[in-house]
Design goal:
It is built from 14 helices and twelve strands. The chain is an alpha/beta fold and about 325 residues long. α4 (about 70-85) crosses α5 (about 85-100), α6 (about 105-120) runs antiparallel to α9 (about 215-225) and α12 crosses α13. The longest helix is centred in the middle third of the chain and has 16 residues, at about 105-120.
C-alpha cells in the first residue's frame, strides 16, 4: 500500500512513529529521497524518536518529521491526542508544513481557513457537545482592554481578571482598536502588552465557542479584525509582559512581540488540537517563527504545559523577570 494510504486517519494509521535509534544501515540515495518527500506529504503527523548519535540517513530525515522527541515517554501524550482527534492533528501538521513557505499574511489566512474548516467538523462538534451549557457572565462595567499613553509609550492591558482574561470577541475588538492607535502614530515608540489579575490570558473564552452563525463568518471576522495581524505589524515596538496562565491565545498573541518577558510562574499551553481545532489566534505563525515548526507541533499535539525556564531555553520568551 502507498504510504499516503497507509498513514491516514481515513485509510490507515493516524500517526507515523519512527525510532531513529535503531541505527538502520545505509539506504540507497533514491530511497532516502523518496522517504524525505513522503514525510512532507503524509496525511498524518510523523514523529521521530531521535538518536544520540544519528546515522547519516537519520540526520538527513530528522528535519522532515513533524515532531522530534527523545523517548517513547515524550511521544505518549501525542499518541493520546492523535487517537482522540486525528483529523485536527492531521490539519495542524499540514498547516505548519505549508506555513513554512508562506509569508506572514498568507500564513494567517491559511490558519484561519483551517480553523474554520475544523469548526464545521465532527471532532469539534463532539467536544462542544460534551461541554456543560455556556454560562452568560454578568456584564462588566470595566473595559475589556485598558489603554494608557504616556509620552511615546502605550500601555495595553487585557482586563477581564475575573475570567482570567479569557479572550472574548469584545476583548479582540478592543485590542485591535488599541493597537490601531499605535499603528497610526509612529511617535509611539514603545508598546507594552500586559494582563490584569492572576493570569495573562487563559485562552479563548470557551463560552463563546460555537456561537457564530457558521464557520465562514468566523473566517470573515478573522480576515477583517485580526489582533494577530495588528500585533505583527507593530512587533518591533512591542514588548509583552506575561505571567501565570498563558494558554491558547495567551501564548499565541504575545509571541508576535519583539520581546517577551515572563514571570517565574508563567506557563504556556496550546490545548486546541484536543478540542478538534488548531491554534486560531495566530499561533501557527508566531510560535513557529520563534521556536520552529517541530516544537510548535509538539506543544500543540502533546498539549503539555511548558514552564518559564523551558520557554526561555526554547526561545518562546526572551527573559524571565524577578
Amino acid at each position: 500500500m502507498d504510504a499516503l494510504e497507509a498513514f491516514s486517519p481515513l485509510t490507515g494509521d493516524p500517526m507515523l512513529v519512527v525510532d531513529l535509534r535503531s541505527g538502520a544501515g545505509m539506504a540507497a540515495p533514491d530511497t532516502l529521497a523518496t522517504a524525505c518527500a513522503r514525510l512532507t506529504q503524509l496525511a498524518c503527523p510523523s514523529v521521530a524518536i531521535r538518536a544520540a548519535s544519528p546515522t547519516p540517513e537519520a540526520a538527513t530525515l530528522v528535519d522532515r518529521f513533524d515532531v522530534v522527541v527523545d523517548s517513547e515517554t515524550e511521544a505518549a501524550p501525542i499518541l493520546e491526542t492523535v487517537a482522540r482527534t486525528p483529523l485536527a492533528a492531521m490539519a495542524l501538521v499540514q498547516l505548519l508544513r505549508q506555513g513554512a513557505g508562506l509569508g506572514q499574511h498568507d500564513s494567517l489566512i491559511a490558519e484561519s481557513f483551517v480553523y474554520a474548516t475544523l469548526q464545521g467538523g465532527r471532532e469539534f462538534a463532539s467536544w462542544l457537545a460534551a461541554r456543560p451549557p455556556a454560562l452568560r457572565p454578568e456584564p462588566s462595567l470595566e473595559p475589556a482592554v485598558l489603554v494608557r499613553r504616556t509620552d511615546g509609550r502605550l500601555d495595553v492591558t487585557l482586563n477581564r481578571p475575573t475570567r482570567r482574561n479569557a479572550f472574548s470577541a469584545e476583548m479582540r475588538d478592543a485590542l485591535v482598536d488599541a493597537l490601531a492607535i499605535a499603528l497610526g502614530d509612529p511617535s509611539i515608540t514603545e508598546i507594552v502588552l500586559q494582563g490584569a489579575g492572576p493570569a495573562f490570558c487563559s485562552g479563548g473564552d470557551l463560552d463563546e465557542f460555537g456561537t457564530l452563525p457558521d464557520p465562514t463568518v468566523g473566517h470573515a471576522v478573522r480576515s477583517t479584525r485580526n489582533a494577530a495581524r495588528c500585533l505583527a505589524a507593530c512587533a518591533e515596538r512591542l514588548r509583552a509582559e506575561v505571567h501565570g496562565a498563558c494558554v491558547g491565545a495567551g501564548v499565541e498573541l504575545p509571541a508576535f512581540a519583539r520581546r517577551v518577558v515572563a514571570t517565574k510562574d508563567a506557563f504556556f499551553q496550546l490545548p486546541e488540537v484536543a478540542m478538534g481545532l488548531v491554534p486560531g489566534a495566530g499561533g501557527t505563525v508566531s510560535i513557529a517563527r520563534r521556536i520552529g515548526r517541530q516544537r510548535t507541533a509538539y506543544l500543540a499535539l502533546a498539549g503539555v504545559r511548558l514552564d518559564a525556564p523551558t520557554a526561555l531555553r526554547w526561545g518562546l520568551v526572551d527573559e524571565i523577570a524577578g
